[in-house]
Amino acid sequence: DVQLVESGGGSVQAGGSLRLSCAVSGYSGSDNCVAWFRQAPGKEREGVAFVYFRYGWTYSADSVKGRFTISRDSADNTVYLQMNSLKPEHTATYYCAAKPGSWAACRSFGEYNYWGQGTQVTVS
């Protein structure tokens, strides 16, 4: 079974940084997409960034470009989300998710079928 385990959330003051980690296990091969989503209270879940695991190609939503960076470590099968210059509006539960597919499949935040349990990020 594919499993994703997030870590690295917490409370931070505005202007601070956090790095979220998502440990991915159970995938065979590297043609898969791993993404970060977030859901703030009372709001819909939104895609933040994704990485095509085979080559490390990435995409970040306009709302986080220049502030959040997604990356992956293929040796550890871990995907990171570096979050800098955090603001209170970034407060949310952050989830990582995965799906099999090529880069073309990755270029959509839809149809993710494996999800982590989420990690809370609170910015005050």
- Strand proportion, as a percent range, falls in over 45%
Whole-number mean pLDDT:
94
| Distance from first to last alpha carbon | 37 Å
Task: Please count the beta strands (DSSP E, at least 2 residues each).
Answer: 11
Largest sheet: 7 strands, mixed
Rounded to the nearest angstrom, the radius of gyration is 13 Å
Assembly state here? single chain
Q: What is the number of helices?
A: 1
Question: Looking at the structure, what is the overall shape?
Answer: globular
Low-confidence spans: none
Q: Care to describe what's here?
A:
The chain has one helix and eleven strands, in the order βββββββββαββ. The chain has 124 residues and is mainly beta. The strands form two sheets. Strands 2, 4, 5, 6, 9, 10 and 11 form a seven-stranded mixed beta sheet that branches. Strands 1-3-8-7 form a four-stranded antiparallel beta sheet, with no helix packed on it. A hairpin with a 4-residue loop joins strand 7 (68-73) and strand 8. The N and C termini lie far apart (37 Å). The mean pLDDT is 94.
